[in-house]
Amino acid sequence: MTPATWVALTLAGGAGSLARYFVDAFVAFREHERFPYGILLVNLSGAFALGFLTATASSDPVLRVAELGFLGAFTTFSTWMLDSERLAQDGRRRAAILNVAISLAAGLLMAFLGRALGDALL
Length: 122
Description:
The protein has 122 residues and is mainly alpha-helical. It has helices at residues 3-31, 37-55, 61-74, 77-89, 93-121.
């Protein structure tokens, strides 16, 4: 990997994590944090985007930086799990289970739809 690729990944990762923060904060502000809709939106849109980019099956370094750097930092498994655990700890087990189930089912669907759209356009 070249130094330029390292720099690009670092910048893309920083941009992805900032985008995640702002999307989550905007949604949480509007929803008053009753449910982790912000992280759900982040992960579902990230799954769709990654599915779409994967459909290109390209080894283009710019797409790889977008996939690994930006989307890798934008989406978040750890925050999703922590949000689910917090819901359960707060006695909201049903919401915790829904967060896990919806994220898994809708995430798979979004990745499929993104890939299908990418395949259709190419």
